[in-house]
């Protein structure tokens, strides 16, 4: 019985999706993959359906009607996973910024270690980022420092999107009360796990910027993170934050 599910949101990832699927499904440990596609216009979903003929027992697809945001894509995936028997549920990008080989290290941190959340961390042992301009490195690193300062979480890479959650964590968090839809979703999930006192471990990984396709980062996403974190922490201090 396969106990691990990798959730990969996609929007116009035709250049990457076949390679990432085949890489994950060729690992020495067995994983299932759930793609949550936000109505890609480049044929991403059609390629996944084609690959499902090759991997009928291990590749699954949810098609949504529009570009509804990273956070809601993961929540859709989490709910799908919790309706089934998966014990270890992963977040992962489609663009190879996260090395599929590191899935096993995150899995082992939760399945063989004592962690309940394992984060593929760019900053726990310095700055492990490849192919980013210095301006973006400083923005990302500074954002994680800012979030760590505001929230009090002892996490170096608070905005990381490469994460393994044990089932019990997602069962405890009220997914319907998640407020953020962009990349700040990653911060909110970690903050809720932190408030619930789950054991969180950072696993050092090397993050490599995409070489194919285009980034989905925007100024609105950054603004949501900067100002939303302050409100999130403020509400938690006065018991107005629903976990």
TrEMBL record:
Q: Which Gene3D superfamilies match?
A: Spore Coat Polysaccharide Biosynthesis Protein SpsA, Chain A
Per the record, what is one GO cellular component? Answer: membrane
Matching CDD domains: DPM1_like (cd06442)
- Organism lineage: Bacteria, Pseudomonadati, Bacteroidota, Flavobacteriia, Flavobacteriales
- Keyword Glycosyltransferase listed? The answer is yes
Pfam families referenced in this protein's UniProt entry, alphabetically: Glycos_transf_2 (PF00535)
Residues of the signal sequence? none
List the molecular function annotations (GO) for this entry.
dolichyl-phosphate beta-D-mannosyltransferase activity
Q: Which UniProt keywords apply?
A: Glycosyltransferase, Transferase
* Keyword Transferase attributed: yes
Q: Which family does it belong to?
A: Belongs to the glycosyltransferase 2 family.
What is this protein called in UniProt?
Answer: Dolichyl-phosphate beta-D-mannosyltransferase
An example GO BP is: glycolipid biosynthetic process
Residues in Glycosyltransferase 2-like domain copies: 6-173
């Amino acid at each position: 019985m396969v106990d691990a599910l990798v959730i990969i949101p996609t929007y116009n990832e035709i250049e990457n999706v076949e390679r990432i699927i085949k890489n994950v499904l060729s690992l020495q440990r067995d994983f299932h993959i759930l793609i949550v596609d936000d109505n890609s216009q480049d044929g991403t979903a059609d390629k996944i359906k084609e690959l499902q003929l090759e991997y009928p027992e291990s590749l699954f697809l949810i098609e949504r009607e529009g570009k509804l945001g990273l956070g809601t894509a993961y929540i859709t995936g989490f709910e799908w996973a919790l309706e089934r028997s998966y014990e270890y549920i992963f977040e992962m990008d489609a663009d190879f910024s996260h090395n599929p080989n590191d899935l096993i290290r995150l899995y082992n941190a939760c399945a063989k270690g004592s962690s309940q959340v394992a984060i593929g961390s760019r900053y726990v042992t310095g700055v492990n980022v490849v192919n980013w301009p210095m301006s973006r490195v400083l923005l990302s690193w500074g954002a994680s420092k800012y979030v760590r300062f505001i929230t009090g979480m002892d996490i170096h890479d608070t905005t990381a999107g490469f994460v393994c959650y044990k089932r019990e964590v997602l069962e405890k968090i009220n997914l319907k009360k998640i407020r953020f839809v962009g990349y700040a979703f990653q911060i909110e999930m970690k903050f809720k796990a932190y408030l619930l006192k789950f054991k969180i471990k950072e696993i050092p990984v090397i993050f490599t910027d995409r070489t194919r396709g285009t980034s989905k980062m925007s100024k609105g996403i950054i603004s949501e993170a900067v100002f939303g974190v302050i409100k999130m922490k403020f509400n938690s201090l006065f018991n107005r934050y629903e976990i």
